[in-house]
Automatic annotation (TrEMBL):
PANTHER family with a match to the protein in the record: NUCLEOLAR PROTEIN 10
Region spans: Disordered: 503-529
Species this protein is from: Sander lucioperca
Domain NUC153: 461-487
InterPro entries according to UniProt: Beta-prop_NOL10_N, NOL10/Enp2, NOL10_2nd, NUC153, Quinoprotein_ADH-like_sf, WD40/YVTN_repeat-like_dom_sf, WD40_rpt
Main location: nucleus
Pfam families cross-referenced by the UniProt entry: Beta-prop_NOL10_N (PF23098), NOL10_2nd (PF23097), NUC153 (PF08159)
Cellular location(s): Nucleus, Nucleolus
Domain of life: Eukaryota
Gene Ontology cellular-component terms listed: 90S preribosome; small-subunit processome
The protein's name: Nucleolar protein 10
Record key words, sorted: Nucleus, Repeat, WD repeat
Residue ranges of every copy of the Nucleolar protein 10-like N-terminal domain listed in the record: 1-322
Length: 643
């Protein structure tokens, strides 16, 4: 840890000091820690809080538990858990990250904008989806009310991707050639984008119309400033509903009130470097602006410099941990954690550190750095002999507490040997009873064998307790899937019980005349196949009966509408019996209709759909004996003529 003072403000650099390379072996690391005093005194607040080569950006989740950092090489993202002070996970990506954002309160929803125009979405388990935008992107912002992602880049258009609908919407057309940065006001959700021409265009996402243009290029130029190129917008940040900070590529920070086109304050870094990050520290009314060389903290009302931080390497981004005074900024080596405090806060920190040292070290501060007490992470490595000696002095009644714990364990072990009353749960009682019986069989088998161990029961596992408490997990024994699988599961359970009995009686010989296990298994297979077929037949019959009942119910609910027919001119109306007879004929089979036609001798076909036309014909009976006689006479005449 390094302590520096700027304007009577002490700054604690928690990441200062040498870091051991990852490729070193554990033995060489221990040797270096013994020889190098800087490595021994280095405070590692969060384990592996660094990046192998370069860190480009860093963000903190809204719940404050996770810190996300992106870097290269290889392109990767790292997540740190501040509650455990350790690295939670690391994911490598296909290309470098230009910008990323955390959409959820924790790390479960992440969005990455890559340098190859790809937009990648990650969920809690890892990669979820990947899509591409039309132009190369430089920055993006998420609009929570409409679930829209606004992408700006090397184009005059602002591309909109709706995450609720899963598609691109109509783009916003700006007057700029390129857009560098963008931001959304957290109060009234005004969308603002900074252009390469030094303008800030503000849009209303509700109506997708531009509501104003702010020219910041001329306002950033002060007296005596040398102009080499047109200042472009390199950083943008909202604070509250009316305050907006704008950073330019020439190193100026302009503070605006949205109700005015003139800046309230212009702050120059005097390095002529682009402003990379802008943040607001609301507890002390400070603005934190950073370029690649320096981080400046100044009052947003008066512009008076509060403090400044100038590390040894270039700065890529700045992130303020919420509701604290800690600033995290990635650079070209690793992350750096700096805590700037005022004089009153600094004195309180000193008191807390002194109190913490006295409570942890128990008066052993003179041994820090020696072989008996060595600093490591947020604790110390202590020699075991020194530990036992300090523990005996600090707690002389440790043996009495140990003795009481042993007696309590013995009493609890004796209680477990008593008769336990088994209570079935309210949900899935049959399944619980089945699991209890299987557990008893396994316990009996394990007790017979010396080396055997019973498997843990599902009922005693907390991961499955919801299955016996929540009624939504109740097994429906009348459903089709259960009835088809139940014969198989029951047979498997029976085979399992037989196997347990065979393992228990493996020393006994098989009696003469008893069927072998293969024959029993074949019989069991035939039996469960027959049961499955029987269940399928029952299910088919139940489905058929159910469909019949549904059709009957539908017929009952159907309201019959009367049909009216118009009698045309020239037609005769006989009676309704003719219509009924025709309907019966239409429903009768072909054989019945032919019998009726033979009985009447005439066939009638009436087609009312084409004008009630009628076709009448009579079936003529042929005498086959007369036909044969005529054929014989004709053949006799032909034969006589030839002779």
């Amino acid at each position: 840890m390094q302590i520096s003072s700027v304007n009577d403000v002490k700054i604690y650099n928690l990441s200062h000091g040498k870091s051991l390379p990852e490729w070193l072996s554990d033995r060489k690391k221990r040797q270096l820690q013994k020889k190098d005093v800087d490595i021994q005194r280095r405070i590692e607040l969060i384990q592996d809080f660094e990046m192998p080569t370069v860190c480009t950006s860093i963000k903190v989740s809204r719940d404050g538990q996770f810190i996300m950092a992106a870097g290269t090489y290889k392109p990767r993202i790292r997540c740190y858990d501040t509650y455990q002070l350790s690295l939670k996970f690391e994911r490598c990506l296909d290309s470098d990250i230009v910008a990323f954002d955390i959409l959820s309160d924790d790390y479960s929803k992440l969005v990455f904008l890559h340098c190859d125009r790809y937009v990648e979405f990650h969920s809690q388990h890892g990669h979820y989806y990947k899509t591409r935008i039309p132009k190369f992107g430089r920055d993006f912002s998420y609009h929570y009310p409409s679930c829209d992602l606004f992408f700006v880049g090397t184009s005059s258009e602002v591309f909109r991707l709706n995450l609720e609908q899963g598609r691109f919407l109509n783009s916003l057309q700006t007057d700029a050639v390129e857009n560098n940065v963008c931001d959304i006001n957290p109060v009234h959700h005004l969308f603002a984008t900074g252009t390469s021409e030094g303008r800030v265009e503000c849009w209303d996402p509700r109506v997708r119309n531009r509501v104003g243009i702010l020219d910041c290029a001329l306002s950033s130029l002060t007296e005596g400033t040398e102009v080499q190129s047109l200042p472009s917008i390199s950083a943008l940040k909202f604070n509250g509903s009316l305050t907006m900070a704008v950073g330019t590529s020439t190193g100026q920070v302009l503070l605006y009130d949205l109700r005015s086109s003139q800046p309230l304050l212009v702050k120059d870094h005097f390095y002529n470097l682009p402003i990379k990050s802008l943040n607001f520290q609301d507890q002390m009314d400070l603005v934190v602006s950073a370029d690649s060389k320096i981080i400046k903290l100044w009052n947003k009302d008066s512009g008076k410099v509060f403090s400044s931080i100038q590390p040894q390497t270039n700065i890529n981004d700045v992130c303020i941990y919420p509701n604290s005074g800690e600033n995290n900024f990635p650079n070209n080596i690793r992350y750096t954690s700096l805590i700037p405090f005022s004089v009153q806060v600094q004195e309180e920190i000193h008191r807390n550190f002194t109190k913490c040292k006295m409570s942890i070290r128990k008066g052993l501060s003179h041994l820090v750095g020696s072989s008996l007490l060595r600093a490591y992470m947020h604790g110390f490595f202590m020699d075991i002999r020194l530990y036992h000696k300090v523990k005996s002095l600090a707690n002389p009644f440790a043996y009495e507490e140990y003795r009481k714990d042993k007696i309590r364990q013995k009493i609890e072990e004796s209680r477990t040997q008593r008769v336990q009353v088994k209570k079935l749960p309210k949900v899935n009682k049959e399944l619980a009873l089945k699991l209890m019986e299987e557990g008893d069989d396994e316990a009996e088998l394990a007790s017979r064998k010396k080396k055997g161990k019973a498997l843990p029961s599902v009922l005693g596992d907390d991961r499955f307790k919801v299955m016996f408490e929540n009624p939504d997990y109740q097994v429906d024994e009348q459903c089709e899937e259960f009835r088809l699988l139940n014969p198989i599961v029951s047979k498997v359970g029976q085979k399992r019980k037989k196997k347990l009995r065979l393992l228990a009686d493996e020393d006994d010989e098989e009696p003469e005349g008893r069927a072998s296990s293969e024959e029993e298994s074949s019989d069991d297979d035939k039996s469960w196949v027959e049961e499955v077929r029987e269940q399928r037949r029952l299910l088919w019959e139940e489905g058929r009966d159910r469909r019949r009942q549904e059709r009957k119910q539908a017929d009952r609910n159907t309201v019959l509408q009367p049909q009216y027919y118009q009698i045309k001119a020239g037609e005769e109306f006989r009676s309704f019996n003719d219509m009924a007879r025709k309907q019966r004929l239409q429903k009768a089979s072909l054989e019945d209709r032919l019998k009726l036609e033979e009985h009447s001798g005439t066939s009638h076909m009436v087609d009312t759909a084409v004008g009630s036309k009628q076709l009448s014909f009579t079936l003529k009976k042929v005498n086959f004996s007369q036909k044969n006689l005529l054929f014989r006479k004709a053949s006799h005449k032909t034969s006589s003529s030839t002779m």
